[in-house]
């Protein structure tokens, strides 16, 4: 892409911020057209690459060839997996399902994500489509040459609209029919001003909108909000092959954020990796209690952190359940009294016990 050249050549200062913002918007638009091919002549779709979503969460493994992804996967799935986790034989990316703390976690090896995938090369597109649906991405790196790989992989994923370990930018954006661009910033901005915002929006042919910047934002943040197809996924950097370095080096690595050093071959530090995965996935386990019996602590219903109301719990089991729902009794940290009678909007916390009462 020839646009990255003028961007690299341009000096960065206040006078050129406007110009840079424009180039960034143009680049983002071109990238989007690459990722989502235009409709029209429906060519062959290629081999099926969609992976059936099983379990409560999905973890994607990304990495260059020969960093030990496969070893890590087979050892992880081998240690903690149910027997015959290979229910799917034809699909290319499912290596296994592990059970951890009662939750079923699907592990996916995402092949060929690296070589120019974001420019639409090879299988890149389909792989990324799968990567965007993951709840957590593990970037597997070789501990001897981690930084180069890390930068390259992050660059590929960023180019696909996947943002790692970031929160969505705090920018309000609302299109209107008339009234021009209404720009407000609730705090001091180091990069964006009304002029730059206007020019970036003009690049998207948006001339009437309300923009509210609630934090110090960059041009990239604004483009992310306007594009609106960004996904924000937590990410852990897994540094493999720690059997080849010294203890002192290991101590330094341990201080790096979002990083877990392991040795896939020797199965070192897997428990730490699984614990960290659990923290990042932020799943909520709800135990069920049939009337007059003890709660079933062996197989919890696992919900994602954003949707943990009683209604979500009912929908997870069966969509007809909510029609017969009268009230629920909940024991645990989300209620003041044990048990407490709650309605369908009550939000539950990890390891609560619930008993449903039907009409």
UniProtKB/TrEMBL annotation:
GO terms for cellular component: cytoplasm; nucleus
TGS domain mapped to chain residues: 282-358
Keyword set includes Methyltransferase: no
Superkingdom classification of source: Eukaryota
Domain named OBG-type G: residues: 57-282
UniProt-listed Gene3D superfamilies: 3.10.20.30, 6.10.140.1070
Entry keyword set: Cytoplasm, GTP-binding, Hydrolase, Magnesium, Metal-binding, Nucleotide-binding, Nucleus
CDD domains per the UniProt record, alphabetical: DRG, TGS_DRG1
Alphabetized InterPro entries for the sequence: Beta-grasp_dom_sf, DRG, G_OBG, GTP-bd, GTP-binding_2, GTP1-OBG_CS, P-loop_NTPase, Small_GTP-bd
GO molecular function (one): GTP binding
Main location: cytoplasm
Location of the protein in the cell: Cytoplasm; Nucleus
GO biological process per UniProt: positive regulation of microtubule polymerization
Full protein name: Developmentally-regulated GTP-binding protein 1
Species classification: Eukaryota, Metazoa, Chordata, Craniata, Vertebrata
Protein encoded by which gene: DRG1
């Amino acid at each position: 892409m020839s646009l990255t050249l003028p961007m690299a050549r341009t000096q960065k200062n206040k006078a050129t911020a406007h110009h840079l913002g424009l180039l960034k918007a143009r680049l983002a638009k071109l990238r989007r057209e690459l990722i989502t091919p235009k409709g029209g002549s429906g060519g062959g779709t290629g081999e099926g690459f969609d992976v059936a979503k099983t379990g409560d969460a999905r973890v994607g493994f990304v990495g260059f060839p020969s960093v030990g992804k496969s070893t890590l996967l087979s050892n992880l799935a081998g240690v903690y997996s149910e027997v015959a986790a290979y229910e799917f034989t034809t699909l290319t990316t499912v290596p296994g399902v592990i059970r951890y703390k009662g939750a079923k976690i699907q592990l996916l090896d995402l092949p060929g994500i690296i070589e120019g995938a974001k420019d639409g090369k090879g299988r890149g597109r389909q792989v990324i489509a799968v990567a965007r649906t993951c709840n957590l991405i593990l970037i597997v790196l070789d501990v001897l040459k981690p930084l180069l790989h890390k930068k390259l992989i992050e660059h590929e994923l960023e180019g696909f609209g996947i943002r790692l370990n970031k929160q969505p930018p705090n920018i309000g954006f609302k299109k209107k029919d008339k009234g021009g661009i209404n720009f407000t910033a609730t705090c001091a901005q180091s990069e964006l001003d009304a002029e730059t915002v206007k020019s970036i929006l003009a690049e998207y042919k948006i001339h009437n909108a309300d923009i509210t910047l609630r934090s110090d934002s960059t041009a990239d943040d604004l483009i992310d909000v306007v594009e609106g197809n960004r996904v924000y996924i937590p990410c852990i950097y897994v540094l493999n092959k720690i059997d080849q370095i010294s203890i002192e080096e290991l101590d330094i690595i341990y201080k790096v954020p979002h990083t877990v050093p392991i040795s896939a071959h020797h199965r070192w530090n897997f428990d730490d990796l699984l614990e960290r995965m659990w923290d990042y996935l932020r799943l909520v386990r709800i135990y069920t209690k049939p009337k007059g019996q003890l709660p079933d602590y062996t197989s919890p219903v696992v919900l994602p952190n954003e949707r943990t109301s009683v209604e979500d719990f009912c929908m997870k089991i069966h969509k007809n359940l909510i029609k017969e729902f009268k009230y629920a009794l909940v024991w645990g940290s989300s209620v003041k009294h044990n048990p407490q009678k709650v309605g369908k909007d009550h939000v539950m916390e990890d390891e609560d016990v619930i008993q449903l009462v039907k009409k």
